[in-house]
Amino acid sequence: MYRQIVIILFFVASLFAGKAPFSIEALYKIKNVGDPRISPDGRRVAFVVTSYILQEGSSNSDIYLIDADGGNLRRMTYYDGADYHPRWSPDGKEILFISSRKNGAQAWLLPVDGGEARQLTDFYGGVSDVQWVGSSTQIVFTSAVFPECGARQDCNKNILESLKAGPLFAHLADRLFYRHWTSYKDGKRSHIILYDSQNNSYRDLTPGDYDAPAMWGRFTLSPDGGQLCFESNRDEFEAENTNKDLFLVDVKSGQMRKLTARNQAYDGQPVFSPDGSKIAYQMQKVPGFESDLKRLAVYDLKTNTVSVLTESFDNWTQNYRWAPDGKSVYFIAHEKAHFPLYRVGLDSGRIEKIADLKTIDAYDVSPDGNWLVAVRRTIDHPAELFRLPVQGNWRDKKAQRLTFFNKAIEDSVDLRPAKEVWIKSPKTGLRIHTFIILPHNFDPTQKYPLILNVHGGPQYQWYDGFRGDWQVYPGYGYIVAFPNPHGSTGYGQAFTNAISRDWGGKVYEDVMAVTDYLAKLDYVDENRMGAMGWSYGGYMMMWLEGHTTRFKALAAMMGVYDLPAMYGSTEELWFPHWDLGGAPWENPDLYARFSPHNYVNNFATPCLVITGERDYRVPYTQSLEFFTALQKKRVPSRLIVFPNDGHWPGYVTSMPFYYNAHLDWFHTYLGGKPAPYDMQKMLRNQAFGSSTAKETVK
């Protein structure tokens, strides 16, 4: 049996032997396809294509059109910046979109059949998530405003300019949630603004000292434009709970009512039904637990009743869309490292799988309900646009590829596939789903260094979708492994729940069991194994530092090091309240047991540490503390701080340095190929040029 596996691996490797190894440069030649929108007549699809210039650290997004059958591809915008978020006008003659071409992000209008784009809004502070209001000439958008100003531009402008112009710069807070993700609030709130193009007027539809919608929350308009539904947290202690609710606003009168007051957990992501009588939304039932089962529910506005449609579906649901006839709702699910598309009937409650393309990032359903378009990617295929029928068994469906923006890379560069294994957990006996990606020009008779990558969340999943970490390191001679240990999504809610209040327990045992399995593979050099992780994965690297010397090198990104200190500086307190069992003074034993900083005396493994100064989720001081301890213990270590980045470094500004730093670090301690760029030159913005760049992709 083993001989057969070796022969198969050798055969697969030979298929890619003529291609160039994947590289950092190749990664930034890949274009991203997203946000597909089918025209009202079903004849065309609008979508966004984003390209990158590695040497400049810049990106450009443009809007494209393609016929529904894949013909007549047209680039619609040519601005050297950001054009994105296309939304068809009700008559299909124009596309509403957002552009950064003048005065920041503003709403623009583009004639579909010829003509120049024209600017609609000039709202101070910019706009996001623009939407049509029914079939009228009005639109709505979100923007950060001062509650006392609302939509009054002169008021917002005066305060903002005073803040920037004066000698004093300070933050003031009288309650928690004074900052979130990467920015301080400084008195601003996200509000939904209505713009009437006929009289060039703005009106605040969600006034008050609240975020409406909440950060990363949604809003939806009824088809006739008469009602607005949005999610918002109106609790006095919003930093301590997940109790966002749905609110309904009469657009004309401004009257507002709360729809989901009975549920003390999360309610959000609303989407109006085609006839405006119902709202599909995401519901959780456990207050304070942001990773509780994410159910699809429907609120009936006529009866003021709620129906949960996916209570028996034991995985998370998201990305809801109504069928055109209003009789069913589509959703994407987390499912064993895939993101397939499902549909559930309102009356029957029947849940059926529509498509499994491994990872579906976004989709839209045709007006006649017979077909859909989806942005699809896999581990070895970047995002592209596909079309497939709605009816029929999902296993028998053939998806038609509509776009080929990345075909040149696919044809010339070795995009590595993955094999999947299931490894027994020593704690529970459950199987840990693990991806293994073999290096470029793999030879099963040779031994290779290995990097094990632990995902963040912690409640999330590694999934079968293209991303840089899956391809860059195999291009430089490494085997990479991506396990989904306890706490991951997609394997039932009980499996997801298993990590809470057990951060250094079952997951650590899972990681070590996966390591044991990998070390026994004949083509893995067990003396050259490293590990890396981001966020909770960074925590696990810090935990490994104090609990094992199995790895020759580690890399911890945005990791949690000192649990009590983390509690006092993070913004969303509901997370440690649930996952760590309360505040440090309420559960001191658990904080002490699972905090990596209490195991400093065991630190011995060389470690790369990366963080961002604007990370308010896992404050960068966590990484500074960790680096200090490593240095004091005389453990070889390196610290990288991105001053302009938060929890997610800039994709084209900072991430190239991130990849290069990992390659440089692992080359030193694991012996893979050298990093393509000199670290000091890259740090000083001197790496890209004919005399300094070490890599080319043909």
UniProtKB/TrEMBL annotation:
Q: Which GO terms describe its biological process?
A: proteolysis
Per UniProt, residues of the Dipeptidylpeptidase IV N-terminal domain are 180-284
Residue span, Peptidase S9 prolyl oligopeptidase catalytic domain = 469-672
Name the Pfam families on file. DPPIV_N, PD40, Peptidase_S9
InterPro entries in alphabetical order: 6-blade_b-propeller_TolB-like (IPR011042), AB_hydrolase_fold (IPR029058), Peptidase_S9_cat (IPR001375), Peptidase_S9B_N (IPR002469), WD40 (IPR011659)
Q: A GO molecular function for this record?
A: serine-type endopeptidase activity
Q: Which domain of life is it from?
A: Bacteria
Q: What family does this chain come from, according to its entry?
A: Belongs to the peptidase S9C family.
Q: What is this protein called?
A: S9 family peptidase
Source lineage = Bacteria, Pseudomonadati, Calditrichota, Calditrichia, Calditrichales
